[in-house]
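Page 47, continued from p. 46.
Same chain as before, 127 aa.
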Amino acid sequence: MWLVEPDNRRIGVLNAHLARKMSFISAFGESFGYIFFIILDLIALTEGVEGERKIARSEETLDEANEKIRKIKGDRAMRLIAIAADVADLVIAIADIEPNPFCNHAVSLGISGLVSAWAGWYRNWPS
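Result:
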């Protein structure tokens, strides 16, 4: 917690060493979450592919089957976008955890930020 003075300078409630540890713990937890979100989206993608195969083999009318397949393909696109955003955010979080030449490079961070922003825009844009 930070207390703010009227001229917007921070007065240190936490010392710098503790703030660095908390930042590390936060970025580590965030990275851990992104990894599991990516795994969950991959599982959902495989279930969608299996569902699409079942619909193709079923004895449904063509219109019903096409509508279900259209919904599955829409979900697949949104999941792929979510995976792209999670991977981009994971790169940014890894840059906070352990600085390295790849994740901390200006191009890597820039592309990751753009991908994350694009995915957020696409997911929230009205249909």
